[in-house]
Specification:
Order of helices and strands: HHHEEHHH
CATH superfamily: Ribosomal protein S7/S5
CATH architecture: Orthogonal Bundle
Strand content: 5-15%
CATH topology: Ribosomal Protein S7
Number of helices: 6
CATH class: Mainly Alpha
Distance between the termini: 24 Å
Strand order of the largest sheet: 1-2
Number of domains: 1
Radius of gyration: 17 Å
Largest sheet: 2 strands, antiparallel
Shape: elongated
């Protein structure tokens, strides 16, 4: 499991645009405050933890180029650091896709829905697992 500090730094770095780390920190804390207001029965730490656990993939499908520009896709298991990194990546990218509201509101709704297993990032994780299960016949061809 990743330490709290490095997890926060990972989230800040994913949110950051044009090197404005202070702005990304403000947006993240604003989203956490909104979680505290909207979901008082649970702490924001518990919601954040379940959201990250629910959206963290167990495996990832890697593409390798072979001869004559043919690519092979095969699944491989992720270690704990990569799991959390991909989870944060999915959460942030899916909240950046929604342009209707400000980012902290969409990030807040993505965290809440991911903790309830109904978010877009959770669906992407299950699609990734299905894709890896389909391509499992190439799983023993790991040479990187």
């Amino acid at each position: 499991m990743m330490k709290k500090k490095t997890l926060k730094q990972n989230i800040f770095n994913r949110i950051m645009v044009n090197g404005n780390k202070r702005t990304s920190e403000k947006v993240f804390f604003k989203a956490l405050k909104l979680i505290q207001k909207t979901a008082p029965q649970k702490s924001f730490e518990a919601i954040l933890k379940t959201a990250i656990i629910n959206s963290s993939p167990l495996l990832y499908v890697k593409q390798i180029k072979r001869k004559r520009k043919r690519t092979i896709e095969f699944p491989f298991l992720l270690n704990s650091r990569l799991k959390l990194s991909y989870a944060v990546k999915l959460l942030v990218l899916n909240s950046k896709k929604k342009k209707a509201q400000s980012f902290y509101k969409t990030f807040n709704s993505e965290l809440l829905s991911s903790s309830k297993k109904v978010s877009l990032s959770f669906k992407q994780k299950t699609d990734l697992h299905k894709d890896g299960f389909v391509k499992r016949k190439f799983a023993n061809y790991r040479w990187f």
